[in-house]
Amino acid sequence: MSDEVPPGAPTDAALELHRVVKSFGPVIALRSGSLTLRPRSIHALIGENGAGKSTMVKIMAGLYRRDSGDFRFHGEDVDFTTTAQSKAAGIAVIYQEPTLFPDLSVTENIFMGRQPVNRFGRIDRKAMRDEVQQIFNRLGVALDPDRITEGLSIADQQLIEIAKAISLDASVLIMDEPTAALSGVEVERLFAVARSLRDEDRAILFISHRFDEVFDLCDTVTVMRDGSYVDTMPIADTTVDELVRQMVGRDVTELFPKQDAEIGEPLLEVTDLTSAGTFHDISFSVRAGEIVALAGLVGAGRSEVVRAVFGVDDYEAGAVRLLGKNVPKKNPVAAMRAGLALVPEDRRKQGLVTDATVGGNTVMAIRRRLAKLGLITTALENRAAREWATRLEVKSHALDTVAGTLSGGNQQKVVLAKWLATGPKVLIVDEPTRGIDVGTKASVHRLLSELAGQGLGIIMISSELPEVLGMADRVLVMHEGRITAEIDRADATSENVMHAATHASGHPTDDLPSERKESK
Asked: Which of 240, 248, 271, 511 is in Cβ range 3.0-4.6 Å of 439 for a Cys bridge?
């Protein structure tokens, strides 16, 4: 069902984009973008990386000007040339990582640049604080208006941005991947706030790669593909499989293309690994051809364990052995030479040099091996990088493309290529598909399965249960720094994994309808 509204037609919409086009030189970022947001509605915008979602958001926010097409706000034609104009009109964008002034208080951040003054011409701090407290009370948020923002969680920083939008009386709120760095409890709190804002006659746009969140929170969904509008429909009238088909233009019958692999001898053996206050008595093995998933809630200690195994972090007791030989602790170079590789959770900050090229990033871990007489040329880099860039289908016109300009999915492929170029025996991947689109997820899953089939041992950390259940030969579940369960693939279910992850006495239920789950 199309939700496009032709120019000039009467509408109750808060915001409308109709066949909007945006190009950057020869590159067409948005071919035909259409979107209609209505008050008292939470509207999802989904699509693969590169579908045009971010360009649409930046046009609405006043960062970009469209080349052609129609843009109306509450029935009036608009053409924002600055972010200030967009904000003044009543549009607020809540980004994945807010940018607040860390040395200022919560209240000062909310009123930055527009502080009220009293009759003596001085800033009325009491009036500011009282208004912020009233907003927090309306939202059911327990934040201290006087607290300095430095050290606040991403979730609390997002709530401050939402409070700022309310203080500006924004009628349209755009949430761009707001849950990517949040725990389950923080997500639920954010959703409760979003629903309360919807009930106040505001229009909310929610952008996410997580289908469970889209179905839980949103009323309506718009799909984009290759820079163009595809369709809009009520959430109640669609399924995950249907949305996937519309996003990628084809059936994705196997989001988790797990191949059967011959399980060989143990490659990695971790024994009684302990780091006081972080994890305790961690013991497990990884065999050739095996994908072992570390599952658990945020804060369970999964990332800390693999960082210690790879030598990034120290540990007090225990041992790590690869191919029967001890791996020195707190020595990533020794771990890499022994045959370990770690794809970190935060690809931009820990996995990539965003200012370097695709070729430069791909060979970064093997530069010393490539150098001739201590020198390495760009041609030499690209020759070594081309094999893995091609194999992982990195979508860039040339290996000299700057890595920071790639989509999230392609950045993840570059990080994978960098570590696979080292020829590891055991590959550790921490949240391998976080923040990437469904088509690229399937591509990454297929690669991991192929690597296991070639005899590589893989440790995968994932907070997405469908990914854990779809890809792992064994699931190790962690709770508060300890392994609480080891479950074979045939026995692993959402229920028993979550039971071990929460260490609960009762079994939680998975209430997302089966036809809306990403099929394994």
From this structure: 248
